[in-house]
Design goal:
By secondary structure, this protein is mostly helical. The chain has a domain of 82 residues. Helix content is 74%, strand content 0%. It has four helices and no strands.
């Protein structure tokens, strides 16, 4: 048995290296995907914040004078444009919320669920 082990120790080491490389490679791919998902979510959320800066009246709807019951009805060109802008704003916000809510919960990271609840709550009338 000892002679066989001495004779095949190189082969065993090679196989062990291959197995470890495959396992580590799989983990690396998983970590890379998680990092990419997180980067996309954070970038989209930052885009949402930029939208809030560009359209503060939509980011803080209590200052908004839109009549939500008339959003889909035709009115003046200004009302239609504002209605469309608001609906696109909310659509982007929901996309950002969807991406960040899927992020894994971390001890040191932000509480994304609370961010989502708060931001969606701003638009609950709509």
């Amino acid at each position: 048995m000892l002679d066989w082990l001495k004779e095949h120790v190189g082969d065993l080491a090679t196989w062990a290296t291959v197995v470890l490389a495959v396992l580590y490679g799989g983990k690396t791919i998983k970590w890379s995907r998680e990092d990419a998902r997180e980067a996309t979510a954070i970038t989209t959320w930052m885009g949402y914040y930029l939208q809030c800066l560009q359209y503060p009246r939509y980011g803080c709807p209590e200052t908004l004078k839109l009549d939500f019951t008339k959003l889909d009805k035709l009115g003046s060109a200004k009302e239609v444009r504002e209605s469309d802008e608001y609906q696109w704003f909310v659509s982007y916000m929901l996309l950002a919320c969807d991406l960040v809510i899927q992020l894994p919960k971390g001890k040191d990271g932000p509480n994304w669920e609370q961010f989502v609840r708060t931001n969606v709550g701003y638009h609950s009338d709509y």
